[in-house]
Amino acid sequence: MDKIRNFCIIAHIDHGKSTIADRMMELTGTVEKREMKAQLLDSMELEREKGITIKLAPVTMKWKGCTLNLIDTPGHVDFSYEVSRSLQAVEMAVLVVDATQGIQAQTLANVYLALEHNLKIIPVINKIDLPAADVEKTAAEIMNLLGCSREEIIEVSGKTGQNVDKILDVLSRYEAQSLRALPVDNCLQTKALIFDSYFDDYRGVVLYVRIFEGEILKNSEILMMGAETKGVALEVGILTPKMTPRDKLSQGEIGYIVTNLKTTREARVGDTVTLAKNPATVALPGYKNVLPFVYAGFFPVSNDQYKELKEAVEKLSLSDSALKFEPENSPVLGFGLRIGFLGLLHMDIIRERLEREFNLDLIVTNPSTNYEVVLNNGEIIEIKSAADLPDASEIREIREPWVKGEIILPKEMIGNVLNLINEKRGHQTNLSYIEGRAVIDFEAPMANLLTDFYDQLKSATSGYASFNYELNGYKAEDLVRIDFLVGGHKIDALSVMAHRSEAEGIGREVTKKLKEVIPRQNYEVALQAAIGARIIARETIGAYRKDVTVKIHTGDRDRKAKLLEKQKRGKARMKRFGKIDIPSEAFTVMLKRD
């Protein structure tokens, strides 16, 4: 136990966590040179392409007589619960800050999380080899944030490997026991924290755990305290980063357990593993059931692919316990699934994985959040899409989720961003400064940040701002459902929830965009936005003027008028029975708003 050091690397997206982890594995001889590749711990093709960490990965290294257990954590706000569980499993955190960008929003969020868990923070400035690096300015920001001295900050280059050995030296110097009070009550019962789990097609659910007390032997029967499920530890071992089997995992160690479980829902991140024969009485703190709060409809382009889509989502949900889905049926799009996500990046990743790994062509409807509806009888129901809203006469109030956000940006751009927050019905709660940069704290409704807030923020600040948010409860607002009618028929998949003050603007904007994407017909098509029975916006798609007079060879006016009258009646009938083909782009018009 005295020779074990457990640590994680925390940073904003793209500040070089995975690259520094690569250099550490090279220096400690954990991975041979011939097996080395960039971002070795990012195993998913998507992770390597986007340059982000989606699934965290642990690795065990040896350095100067010490065992160093590293957990490479995701940097994005959608996965902050996973990050918090990783921080629970370690005693030290290496804080990596990019010398060219300085402290960003996610850096702050992760530092606050690390301080909450009483971790020893080791500050590191990365990318010092780049021409744009401003080491002194970044060091001043870190000193301001952590209150550390200049000598404590290690300057490294993850790309060239310069000074990475100094981080390893500092890590091995600290005594694990003196770092923080671990949640141990010195009883003989085994307790281990699950900080990640995934489903392996050939072996079942694999758990990544930190043993806090006792030990877990191979083939012992285990119990997940939160989910109340039992399983068998078919194999235990450490990651180097390949799976290396051992006879047992002991107190203080980080490793893996291969179980006979069939889905990660039976062993969620944050749960406590104990032995079924002598179970612990009190679980480790901090476990919660992560609930999605962004929902979108996923429909196959061809209805023949519905079964394949369902099977693909079921397969992904085996590894991702945060993914919730239910069948949905739309008169226009046919059969599909309504899927819940942790955030927009999570949604984007699942969509790309479905299209790439399972060769599916998908239509994704506009993402929405969940709302709480209080009925007249006092009952509270939760709705995931505008189409589920009960009749207005039954509703007492509608509550929508609000978020607490934090934006870091150059101080000369504050005006643009405050205007943007006001446009989104948000309000600024605090404004502070870190070394020439401003930190804006604000509150805003989740629904208004869902579609393109991040894009607009980047435009308003020329890409210099970074943004972080967390859920901040539900507030009752004057919300209405806007329905869209195409040729008099209501299209449920297009319905959206909005604040009454914004409804007319959204109605005009969406009908205008629908006019551009829905093709013209042989008859006039009305596009309308409505709240209940009241029409708030209208656009008209003009008819093709296809009047055919080819059969008339003489210039007889009566015969011509008779034929045109017949065609007019035909067009009226067509308007009554005709089916308008609505292209898939019509369902994503809300994603890019002006």
Q: Helices and strands in order, then pairings?
A:
Blueprint: E1 4-10, H1 17-27, H2 45-50, E2 57-63, E3 66-72, H3 80-88, E4 92-98, H4 105-116, E5 120-126, H5 135-146, E6 154-155, H6 164-173, H7 176-179, E7 191-200, E8 204-213, E9 215-217, E10 221-224, E11 229-239, E12 243-246, E13 248-250, E14 254-259, E15 272-275, E16 294-300, H8 306-319, E17 324-330, E18 334-341, H9 344-357, E19 362-364, E20 371-375, E21 380-383, E22 395-410, H10 414-423, E23 427-434, E24 437-445, H11 446-450, H12 453-460, E25 466-477, E26 479-486, E27 489-490, E28 496-499, H13 500-517, E29 525-531, E30 534-541, H14 557-577
Parallel strand pairs: 1-3, 1-4, 4-5, 5-6
Antiparallel strand pairs: 2-3, 7-8, 7-15, 8-14, 9-13, 10-11, 10-15, 11-12, 11-14, 16-18, 16-19, 17-18, 20-21, 20-22, 22-24, 22-25, 23-24, 26-27, 26-28, 26-29, 29-30
Explain this structure.
By secondary structure, this protein is an alpha+beta fold. The chain has 5 domains: 4-179, Rossmann fold (3-Layer(aba) Sandwich), CATH 3.40.50.300; 191-275, Translation factors (Elongation Factor Tu (Ef-tu), domain 3), CATH 2.40.30.10; 294-364, 2-Layer Sandwich (Alpha-Beta Plaits), CATH 3.30.70; 372-477, Alpha-Beta Plaits; 481-588, Alpha-Beta Plaits (2-Layer Sandwich). It contains 14 helices and 30 strands. Strands 2-3-1-4-5-6 form a 6-stranded mixed beta sheet, sandwiched between helices. β23 (427-434) and β24 (437-445) form a beta hairpin. The longest helix has 21 residues, at 557-577. The chain is globular.
